[in-house]
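EI: anyone free to look at a 373-residue chain?
SC: sure, send it
EI:
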Amino acid sequence: MQQALRNKIIGFSLPELMVVISIIATLIAILLPIIGKARESSNRVACASNLRQIGLLMSEYSQVNRGNYPRTKYTVGATPQYFTGATDTDPFVTGNVLANDMTAAFFMLPRALRAPTKVFICPSSVMEADKLSGSTATKRSNFTASSNLSYSIECPYPDAPAAQAGYKWNAIHPVDFALAADINCGSTSTSDDVTFPTKTSPTKDQRIGNSRNHKKAGQNVLYADGRVEFRSTVFAGINGDNVYTRQGTTIATNDATTPLGFPKNRFDSVLGVIDPGAVVASTTTTGTGTTTTGTGNTGNTSGNGNSGNGNGNGNSGNGNSGNGNSNSGNGNSGNGNGNSGNGNSGNGNGNSGNGNSGNGNSGNGNSGNNNGG
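SC: here you go
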C-alpha cells in the first residue's frame, strides 16, 4: 500500500511545466517595462535635483563675483572650445586651457565652490563622475574628458554682435532663459539632430532633437529663476527658442559641424557641449586639395630609356602611385620618387613618369595631383 502511494507521488508533467514557464515569461514581459519606467522616473527626479544644485552654485558664484557667472579666458569671437587643459593648476594664466572653453567655465563650480563632480552627471546617462585623477578640483582647470560631463551650459562667451545686442553672462536674465540642461545631442545622425524638428513637428520628430540622457523623451532644463522643468521638446526657451542652437539659424556660422556657437542676443540660449555618444568618432573634412607637381629624382642608369615611379601621398587619404612607362631599349631602370602634393583630404592620384629614351637619360617621375574630395 505504501509502495503504491509512493509511486503516485510525482512532479509536474511537461505540459504543466510549459504552462508555468509561459505564465512567468508573461509576468516578466509585463513587469519589465513598468520597472524601467519607474527607474527612469526616479532618474529624472535625481537629474532635476542635480540641475537645481547647479543653479544654486551659479547663484552663489555670482554673489561673490559681482553678479557674474563663471567663465575663464575669453577672446571675443574665438571659436568655443571644450575640455582643454584639465590638469592645469590655474585656468586664467597662460597654459593649456584655451580661450572660450565652455567646460572650463562649467568646471569653475567644483573648482571655486568645491561642488562634487557627481552633481554634473545625469543618472540616466552613460557618463561617469570625474575622479580627477586622484587630485582635487582646486588644483585642476577642467573636466578630464567628455565622459565626465552629461549637462550642457549656456555659452559664456558672446561674440561682438551678441554683446552689442545686450547679451551678458551674469545673474540678470529673464526668468525663462535656459542656463543649462541635459546634454545636447548634436546633429550627427538621423536619430540625433537638434536642427531637425520645428516647433510644429509631431512627437516622433521632436524626439530626434532631444537629449540622449532620457532615452530621447526630453530634457530637464534649468531656468534663470532656478526652477527645473522636464521638456519634451528642444523649443523650451524664451518665446519657444531652441535652447541648443543659435536663434534664427540651424548651424552657427562660427562652427560648421555642430549646432553650437554664440548666442544672437540676450534672449537666446545656446547650450553647448555635445554628447560624445552621438558624435561620429572621426569626421572627414571636405576641402580642396592644393595641386603640386613633383619632379622624380634620377636613378643610376645605363642604356636606353629609364622608367620613373611617382608616389603621391595626400595629407588625408592615400596617394595612388603612378607607374612610369619606359621607352624601348636595354638599360637598368631608374627610380623616380615624385614629391607629393598636399591634399586636405581625399585620394591623391599619381600620374606616371615618362622615361626619355637614348643615352641613359633618367626619367622624370611627376607626382599625381592630390585633389581633396
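EI: The longest strand covers residues 178-182.
SC: 👍
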